[in-house]
Structure formats: structure tokens, C-alpha cells
Amino acid sequence: MQNISTGLVRRLVDDQFPEWAGLPLTLVDPAGSDHVIHRLGPDLSVRLPRHEGAIGQATKELEWLPRLAPHLPLAVPVPVAVGRPGLGYPWHWAVARWLDGEPATTALDSAETAETLAGFLRALRALPVDGAPTGNDGLAARDPWTRAAITKAADAFDAGPMTRLWDEALAAPGWERPPVWFHGDFHTGNLLAGNGRVSAVIDFGGLGAGDPAVDLMMAFTLMSARTRPAFREALAVDDATWLRGRGWALSAGLIAYTAYAATDPHIAAVTTYQINQALA
Known about the structure:
The chain has 9 helices and 10 strands. The protein is of the alpha+beta class.
């Protein structure tokens, strides 16, 4: 985990992009577990990965988002530049256009939101995948970490239902159709909202093509039993894909819960909701 101060970010910007040296730099807090984010002047944001698991996103977004964005119904980040390692900081980092909005919450849970988000995924999945990155390695690759998280979280959640759901998700038939684009980390924390509506989708580090079940996590992080059916129907999700999506929601929620819940009350709350909704 990198210690990234505002002073370091200031020096990196001034050294590599002197045209922005006069712009004010303000830390965005909280910014998430993967990146440190600063606002640079009124129109730009600067994002630096905190750890190795988040590296590579800057170059991926610069390559792909300008191609995908014109075809998507919600705003997405507009990459401007990629910074180089320097001044002791080891990885590439990103400069993008600032996106206005507030972090989304479950207060947005509605049939309208479900349809909006399903529409975003339909538009993304309809785009050609030629040359697309593979994104993730699937549920099976997460098995050791998920089972370890089930054990660690057994005091907070019933290990029996968690284990049964995880076993069932792993055993579900896989995606046998042609690969389609997926966001890869499609949950409430990667949405921005304004005027009571979802306005933007951010953080495309997991972007890739393959099994779209990973993006069904949204149904268990923002939505409830009341609105999930509308989301599922709008995407025409079959039983096996839905079950794999529940597995993704459980795994991602548990791993984040065991890593951060003890020190971050917000993450504790949102991952508790996610785990319970996946189990419901």
C-alpha cells in the first residue's frame, strides 16, 4: 500500500504536466480503497493507485473509454493523460475530466434506476469486443480467498448459507455464448448521482470481455428484492448467470468486509448490505 501525500501528487503533476502547475489541487476524501483522488482545478481529476491490484487502469481507460463512451447512455470518465512513475512513486497514474455528482446510495433504489442501469449494461454489451481485455479470471480463481473470507466473517454472518451459495455459484453452468463487454466492478460505489438519478459510471479498472455475470453485483449492492426483478427482466438473465452474479456479489462483499470493515464504518455498512442481499 503506497503512502500518497498531496505534496507528492503536486510534485508529480508539476514535473510531468507543467501546463497544470498553477491549478489548485484538493484531496477528494473519501475516495475508495484502490486510488487516491485529487481534484485539479475546476475541470480535472488526478487518480493514483494505492496498491498493485489497481495498477494498469490508467492506460486501460485511456485506450478504451474514448471508443466506448459515445455509445453509452450514462457519462463515463474522459481520460486526458497518463502520468509516469516518478519521484519514488512506482506506477502509472491518470488525469481525467472531473465528473460532477455525489456518490450513489441505496436511496436511489427504484424501478427507474434498475432500468437505467440495465440500459447501460445492454448498451455496453452490444459493442464489438475485438481486441478487448479479458478482465477477470472468473469465480473459480477467487475460491481460496472467498472461503477464507467466509471463515473470517463467520461471527458476523452465518457460514452455512454463505458456503452453500458459494458452492452453488461455482457449480453453475458457465457462459457459453460469445464474450460481451463487462464493467467488472459494477456496484453502488462506482456510480455518481445528481438530482435523484444516476448520472455517471466510473472506475473501469475491471473492464473486459467475457462472462457478464460479474456486473450483476449491482443488483445486490444498490437494489432490493423489490427492484431486482425489473433489473433481471430488463437484461433477460438466465438462472445460471443470475446465480453466478450472486456468487460475485457474495465474494466481493466478503473480501471487502474482511479487509476494511474493522476500520471503515461505511465499507462495513455497504458490504453487510451486499452480503445479506446476495444471501436473501
